């Protein structure tokens, strides 16, 4: 039976039903091709350019497009909420992971490298944040999507690795990682039409660079890293989510609404690309990139399933599960 929208096989719709599916499905397909028929993508010309070598330029385009969606017209409450999300989701987890790395080295613990931990823990799934806060949050929560635009991508991972001395990340590599984002912010604020034009870019480029990344993943790595990736996802949601929750309760004083902070306890689909970016900047991390990519991919899915369940359950327990649709007047919720 054909799809009501006119698709004989609604592939896009089916992929989107799976959390992170727009990235995870092509990633798995790419890994199948890369494992069992790697020569098929080595025939050259546009085939090799698109399906094997396109990851880095397409990721760069995605970062630029993400920047265009960040506007300067944000009020104090939105900026305060954004700061709390970045502190709890990126800064504190990053510092803790680097402290661990100083003790155990870049190989990490129990088969999970410091690279995988940073890639999985220091960013959030912005789309899922919008979905959860759209159901349970206020305008200031939805506006904090800016945090997802800032921490999405490899910048924080590169920054922490370079600053800690665990890797030799050249300053120009850090600068190069954020130039597309900064230019995107400038363009999006100067010309709103560009911002609107680039809105659909994620849906267009993510499946293609995910497939290209997948071709570099050996399924043997997935088999060995899959379970640890699931465990990582199970830990990422409560640990990083609770840090944002504490920020909501102690800094923003949101009281019974504070469980919304657990919506940040996710891993962005774009984080799957981070190990490859870091390995390109510092080849010493190449040995960890394959396993880290598969672990982060598993973490994306697991955290996307757990975070909404935790937010819903905790808000029901606090008696504030009803949707907050209005911002007027928003009284401070007593702790």
UniProtKB/TrEMBL annotation:
Has the keyword Ligase been applied to this entry?
A: no
Provide this UniProt record's keywords sorted from A to Z. Cell membrane, Membrane, Sugar transport, Symport, Transmembrane, Transmembrane helix, Transport
Pfam families with a match to the protein in the record: KdgT
Q: Transferase: is it a keyword of this entry?
A: no
- Segments crossing the lipid bilayer: 21-43, 55-72, 84-104, 110-132, 144-163, 169-189, 201-220, 226-248, 260-281, 287-315
GO CC, alphabetical? membrane
Extract the GO molecular function terms from the UniProt entry.
2-keto-3-deoxygluconate:proton symporter activity
Q: Which family does it belong to?
A: Belongs to the KdgT transporter family.
Q: Under which name does UniProt file this protein?
A: 2-keto-3-deoxygluconate permease
- Species, as recorded: Spinactinospora alkalitolerans
């Amino acid at each position: 039976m054909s799809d009501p929208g006119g698709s004989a096989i609604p592939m896009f719709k089916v992929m989107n039903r799976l959390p992170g599916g727009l990235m995870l499905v092509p990633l798995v397909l790419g890994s199948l091709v890369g494992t069992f028929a790697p020569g098929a993508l080595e025939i050259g010309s546009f085939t090799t350019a698109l399906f094997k070598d396109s990851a880095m330029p397409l990721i760069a385009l995605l970062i630029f497009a993400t920047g265009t969606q960040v506007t300067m017209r944000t009020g104090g409450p939105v900026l305060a909420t954004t700061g709390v999300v970045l502190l709890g989701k990126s800064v504190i987890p990053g510092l803790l992971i680097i402290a661990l790395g100083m003790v155990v080295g870049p190989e990490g613990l129990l088969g999970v490298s410091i690279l995988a931990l940073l890639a999985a823990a220091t960013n959030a799934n912005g789309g899922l944040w919008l979905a959860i806060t759209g159901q349970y949050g206020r305008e200031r929560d939805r506006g904090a999507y800016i945090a997802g635009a800032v921490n999405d991508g490899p910048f924080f991972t590169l920054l922490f690795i370079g600053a800690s001395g665990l890797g030799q990340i050249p300053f120009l590599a850090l600068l190069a990682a954020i130039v597309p984002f900064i230019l995107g912010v400038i363009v999006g604020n100067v010309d709103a039409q560009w911002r609107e034009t680039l809105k659909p870019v994620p849906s267009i480029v993510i499946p293609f660079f995910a497939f290209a990344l997948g071709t570099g993943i050996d399924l043997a790595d997935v088999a060995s890293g899959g379970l640890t990736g699931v465990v990582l996802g199970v830990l990422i949601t409560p640990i990083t989510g609770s840090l944002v929750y504490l920020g909501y309760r102690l800094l923003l004083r949101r009281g019974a609404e504070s469980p919304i902070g657990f919506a940040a306890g996710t891993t962005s689909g774009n984080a799957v690309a981070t190990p490859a970016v870091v390995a390109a900047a510092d080849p010493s991390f190449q040995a960890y990139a394959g396993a880290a990519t598969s672990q982060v991919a598993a973490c994306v899915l697991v955290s996307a399933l757990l975070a909404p369940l935790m937010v819903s359950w905790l808000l029901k327990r606090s008696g504030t599960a009803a949707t907050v649709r209005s911002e007027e007047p928003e009284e401070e919720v007593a702790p």
